[in-house]
Each structure stands twice: as structure tokens, then as C-alpha cells.
Amino acid sequence: MPEAFHFLYPHWLWALLPLALLLWFMRRHGSMNNPWASVCDRQLLPWLLNGEDHRGSHLPVWLLAAGWVIAVLALADPVWEKQPQPVYRSQQSVVVVLDLSRSMLAPDLPPSRLARARYKVADILQRSEEGQIGLVVFAGDAFTVSPLTNDADTILALLNPLSPSLMPVQGSRVDRGLALAGKLLEQAGIARGNILLITDGYDDARALKVAKELHRKGYTVSVLGVGTAKGAPVPDGSGGFLRDDKGNLVVPGLDRDALQRLAKAGGGKYRLLSGDNSDIDALLKTGNSPLGDDIKATDLKTDSWLSRGPWLVLLLLPLAALAFRRGWLVVMVFMIGNSLFTPQPVMASGWDDLWLRRDQQAQKALASGKPEKALTLAEDKLQRGTAAYRAGKYEQAMQSFSGEESADALYNEGNALAKLGQYEAAIKAYEKALSLRPDMADAKHNRDEVEKLLRQQQAEQQKQQGQQGQQGQQGQQGQQGQQGQQGQQGQQGQQGQNAAAEGQTGETSGAGEKQDAGAEAKSSGGTQADEQSAGQVSQQQKTGSQADKGQNAQGPAGKQGKQSEPGGSQATPLSTEQQLAAEQWLKRIPDDPGGLLRRKFLYQYQQRATPPTDGRQAW
To answer: Which member of 24, 104, 278, 330 lies 3.0 to 4.6 Å from 114 by CB, making a disulfide possible if both were Cys?
Structure first.
């Protein structure tokens, strides 16, 4: 006990200093002695006071000191032993269902709907400190990226490769995504869970039926809408845009009413994707379980100090009883004064309301770096928008500024739009502000900067589309050039080199056929001509790469007149030029971090033997 004894809140011991000062002051000024001693000789006091004994007059003071010390020690909370306590963990489970249909590539939310959705899922994963979370993706069918787990970092590592190219079949089967999410919750033994659907729309009434069934089982289906009602053309990956069977340009817009009906059927809420976290705050805090139902004790134990301070309060009860005796009201005053040391919620706004208006209080909060507090106090739209902007709530700030037509409001609206990535709208807002106040230097500067960002964004998009379009041409040219060099070397070299080149060509053809089959399975949602073209491009790229490798390995041997061994166990060292050429070819091979997920989804799709899509939209 002596080694472990300490106070949990030792700062309360500073409250003993006022008591010491009070006792010193009373003794200094004679308050603890007889008050007649200051005006009369002490030797005459017994005769003047009729012989009364005043030795007990110090008792209230000492009782006051005793009560003060006991109260301070109780607040400091002495402890000396620990007690094991169970550790509780939240069992709230969330399954995120992410739409990977091709319509998610629409750039109406720059850079694309899918990119913004991935950012939002990353925010959800970073905020999920407790409870389990899983991830399901869907297009023409649904697949599990990660089952329910407490390790959100694992899901975060798998998030970036997610794209429509991973899906073996295209479509927008929201019903299958919801059904798979419900299956994950049931397999984990979760009686009450939440399903968060992130999509840009659906056209199948079966989704409503599945949502109602999940809600009947105790699960909540909430919807986060991604996109705009106007929509945008969908890139097809080859420099053009997606078209339907009639040749019309596909421009999918967000059907907010349909998504609201889906959320209502699932017993959840609907929110539109925003630039801040207000959307996920509203969706994730929606619980369908009573208070405490999702909290369970774990097998872990933690030791906590056993508080002894409350027991010291019992020693104050006799002192409180003495306060009812005549002449002992000072003890009651002490008890009331002692209650002032207990922590009370500080209501600073009461003093501020007395001397400052709400707009002045909001301005004061902004000046002190408290935009959240200023947002609750501000009544003026401009002030509210400024507070929301500084708090990082750009969507709310844009809405506050949009109702005003002053130059400052338009300038601030442009800043909020720029933060949200809506560069064209931001430029228009800056132009309106400059039309009202042409000498606004900040608006000119920000407009020029946003125009640069817009040009960079457009250039990057064009560059990506150009690279995708030139990829097939480069692969075909590489194949023809390398085959010509290989044929020339085969005529000049020896039979061993020709045999090795033929073996590599055979392997390349086999690999090309496998790659072609994989491309056909991946693009089964498109037309047959597109599938064949994609397979030929992949085969040509890989054939050119293999032929180049054959040239690098066989070329020096042919020039030097050396014969390779039948087993090919010895490799000729590459020269510096050949190594650089090989590195250049390797750089041309596109990165495919999602290859494992693609093969996993394809295998699962083949094992299910599910019927193909039923003719509904393939995007």
C-alpha cells in the first residue's frame, strides 16, 4: 500500500493553500482570540467579562479547517489498489456496398464518380475505430472484397485498384450487392447491422424487394448518392464515350427520387455525396439497435484504480449535522462554499450574451480560431458561410454564399466551389464578382489559379485517353518490328537459336490465347467486336514483349557464334543498351495492381453459374 498510494487528482491539493492563508489571516488579526483583546489589557479581560470562559470559541474555526481538509482530500481521490475491469467493444457492424458499374466513370463529379466514392469509403474506414466493417462491390454481379473485420487498414489497401475493369460482367445489379451484404452479416452472426450503399442509381425493382427483406431481418439500408442529375458521358477506355445499342451517347444522371425510395424501403436514410463528412456523419450514426445492444464485453481485462475518495465524504456528515445547532451556521456556510469547488459546466455564453450580440460573438469565435462555434452563432449568411468554409464544410459554405449577389459573397462562393473541385462553376463565380468589382485583385488571382487547375485537369484527361488509344497501336508496331528482327537473326544464327525462338513463340501464343480469353471474360458486358479487339491488343502486346526478350537473350549469342545449351541453363549477360531496351519494354507493360481481384471475381463468377444479365442497362 505505501508504494502504490497516490492521488488520482493531485491538483486539488492546491485548494489547501487558501485554507492556510485564511488561518494565518485570522490569527494575524486576532480573529482567533477574544475580540476585546485589541482594546483592553489581557490581564483585565477575565474581570471585565464576568469570568466567562472563552476557550471554546476556537472550535468552529478548527471544525471549518477539518471539513476543508476532508473535502479537498476527497476531491483529490486517494487510491492504493487496483481492480480488474472488463473491456467492452462496440459490435456495430457496417457493410459498404460500392457500385463498380461503368457509369461510375462519368466525370460530372471531377475527377470521376468512382474516384469521389473511393475517397468517401476511405474516410469511412479511417473513422471506423470500433466495430466491424466489410466491403462488397457489384456491377452485373456482386463480389466480396473483404468480409467483416476489425482491421480497416486491410480494406484501405484494397481500395485504390477497384475499378469497373475488375468486374467479369457489367451491369447495375444493386439487388445482388445488397443481398451479398446481408449474407455477410448473417454469416458473422450479426443480428442488427447497417448496410451503406454507394451508387449512382438503379433500374431494377428487385432492389426494393431485397431492401425491404433486409429491413425485415433487422438490418438498415442507407444510400449515399454519387453524381448529378444532369450526368455526363461515360468514357469507354479507348478515347471515346459509351453508346447504347442504338448508337446514342450514354449520359447517366442521378435519380435522387429512386434512391430515396430505396433508402426508405431499407429503413435507412439517403444523402447526396458532399465535400465534407456531413453525409457519412448523418448516415453512420443512424442506428437500429437499442442503446447498449451493440456493446459487448470481451475476454480482455484492464486494471483500474479503486477510488476511495467518496468514502471520505462520509466524514463530512457529522459536521453537516452540527450546522443545525444554534450558533453553528458557519459550518453550513462552509458546506455551501465547499460545493463551489465541484466542477460545473462553464456557460461563457451567458456573459457574452450580456455584452455582445450573436454576430459579435461569432466574429469573436472566428478570430479565436473556433469556426465550429461561430457556425452555431452566426445568423448572417456571409458570416455563416465564412465559418463553414474555415471549418472545412465547403458544401455548406457554398450554399450560404450562393444566396447573395455581392462581390464578396460571389468571391467566397468561388473559393468554396474550387475546394469542392467544381472549377468551371468557380470561374463563373469569380467572373461575376469581378463584374461587380473589377479591382478585386484576390478574385483575379484565384480565377487565374483555378483556370490553370482546370487546364491541367483537362490535359491529364486527354493524355490518359490518348495513352489508352495509342496502347494498341504501340503493341502492334512492337510486334512487327521485333518479329522482323527475330527472323533476320534466325537466318544468321544457329539452329539452337532458332529452336529457342520457336519455343518462345509457342509460349507466347499460348499466353496470348489465355490473355485473350481473360479479356473476353472481363468484357462480356460489351459487344463481340470490342471483345475481339481487346483480345488482339493484349495478345500483340504480350507477343511483342516476349519477342523482344527472345532477341535480347539470343542476339549476342548469334553475333559471337556461340551455341546455347539444349536446356538453356546458361544465360548470356545483357549489354547496357540491351538492359535499357528491356527496361523500356517493361515500362510499356501496364500496371495491374487489381489483377488478383480480377481473377478472384472471375473465378467466383464462373463457379456460381449465374445467368447473364437480363437485357437491362449494361452500365
So the answer is: 104
